[in-house]
């Protein structure tokens, strides 16, 4: 029986891809103006971006425990093996909650086959790991082999991303007020990565042209055989920036396989409209 892939809505992959590989998605929660919504179900990213432009401050929460439990139980009842791939545990409590729900389900269904993976990733990086998992499942890898391979590959996913307005990082507690004010006045763009699942700044530049130059520089330094990869580009209502970055990457690396997608509302609530990210592997071998 083919392993079922389940993930949370931090995973920024197109609906068409999720449907093709029959991947289930459990939503993260977005709170906006005292109303609670399910990411990608009852609220969409543009709703959040429009609210942020109007000075609203959305909050987010992990995937609800009951949704995880219901989903795991539905497959345990059928003795269908599953792997749940969660957003980085450094950014969300979803992984820890999923581990607890796994234990609860196993108490009732002790023969169930359930694996829970901390992706060490978010957004498109999370998407890369889910994509890889779907391909492994489609090739009929068993649960144990998939868990081993995913735990290896998660250490080799590169995240390079930036935000259009540093004020959003300040609101989310990622940047001091002084840095936000200075950054806004000087048009300074932070460049961020996600080593071991935790946000880490790697530089800052002034202006869009230098921003793209620095992103390409980091990609060529860190990526392995980029021309052989599928590179994921995500954006927060910034399709023009995503298309421009894709064109530059094609010219620089000769890569022609891309997935371009919008950042979901839960992740988007922290990075804000205009954000842009690119995700790829720094190692292609799995052993």
Automatic annotation (TrEMBL):
> Keyword Coiled coil on this protein?
yes
The GO terms describing molecular function are: lipid binding
Which Gene3D superfamilies has this protein been placed in? 3.30.1180.10, degv family protein (2.20.28.50), Dihydroxyacetone kinase, domain 1 (3.40.50.10440)
Q: Which InterPro entries match?
A: DegV, DegV_C, DegV_domain_contain
Q: Which residues form a coiled coil?
A: 129-156
Taxonomically, the superkingdom here is: Bacteria
What's a Pfam family in this record? DegV
Keywords in alphabetical order: Coiled coil, Lipid-binding
UniProt function note: May bind long-chain fatty acids, such as palmitate, and may play a role in lipid transport or fatty acid metabolism.
Name under which the protein is recorded: DegV family protein
Organism for this UniProt entry = Bacillus taeanensis
